[in-house]
Amino acid sequence: MGNTACGQWCGKLCDGNEEDKESKRRSTIRPEKSEKRAKKRKEKAEKRCQRSKENSPAKILDQKEFYDEFSSSDYEDSDYGDIHTKPSFTRKGYCKQMFKEFIYDWIKENLESETALAKFIKLGPFKVKTRDAGASDDTSSYKIQKKVEYGKGTSKENNGKKMKSLYFGEFLGNCKQGRGVYLENKQNLYEGFFVNDKPEGKGRLIYSNGDVYQGEFENGQFFGYGKLVTKTGFCQGNFKDGRLNGIALEIMKQSPKDKYFGNFVNGMKHGEGELIFEDGDEYNGEFKNNKFHGEGTMMHANGDVYTGYYKDSLRNGRGKFTFKSGKVYAGYFENNMFEGQGTLTKKDGNSYEGNFHLGKRHGEGYHIDKKGKRTRVRYKNGEEVK
């Protein structure tokens, strides 16, 4: 008897082979869901067909779809040290994927015809053999396309019998040109655009340790706006020659968990910026080579506030230090201590105006009461000399 369903819709199937039963069960129990899936598959197939016809790198670069894909990428919010969380072929359901799992799943999802190679890449070692005519398509053999002078193709680099690097994408004059995916030295995966064999334009670089950079490249280096996620922290801003240059945000995720927003030069804090420390202290001012240097304000978590000049992250030069207790010192500093001429005013209004050394009153000065009366005094190492 042929495979038939019950006369009325009830979600049950009559006798038939298991494959037909399964297909009928899917279409019978949730017909609307099955139709949606079929529609999505058809749309994806049409898009792939359309992209395959447009071999010109210039046309690919103009595709807004690719840029939208980057801006909505789900790995931006990933946990540090993992690639991202998504449905995995490697393990059932949602999971946080490590690097090899990500490589395998990416190839299986985006290059469905390369399943044999994908399995072999995951299971390793990275050996790829050319399949002979009539050979079975198993994990030990797979046909690799040769480089093409123009259009889409695949290339690999070998180190002896083991595969060193693998590239899927577009070529121009035997060079990687246009959109492609490059697995380098079995470690780092780059997905994006190439110019003359080097990453250039929008791209995403995933390191084997889980670090991820997403943004703009030039001549194979981070160049332009981008985001870098590592196990120790996150930074977002402008890059030049692989380093932060210009305005950027940096957040550390391991102790000390500091946050910085401001200017960078060659990867170092340099210029105007704001730094928030893990303990609650906040500095707003000038930096030089990752150190406080120039004019700035430090607001301590305990309520103390300093406004003035810094050198090599130490208070040096003229400044004003306001204590939580209400006491205020205005004058000169050297290596974080009162040094030279200054005025120390107590909360009750009485003050001392004179010389300081190593943070203590030292030398000649005046006691000034809150009514303005001045009395000449002399100090040595903080002790008044009668």
UniProtKB/TrEMBL annotation:
Stretches with biased composition (Basic and acidic residues): 21-35, 43-60
Note down the stretches annotated as region Disordered.
14-60
* UniProt-listed Gene3D superfamilies: Histone H3 K4-specific methyltransferase SET7/9 N-terminal domain
* Keywords in alphabetical order: Repeat
Tell me the InterPro entries matching this sequence.
Answer: MORN (IPR003409)
Per the record, a Pfam family? MORN
> How is this protein named in the record?
MORN repeat protein
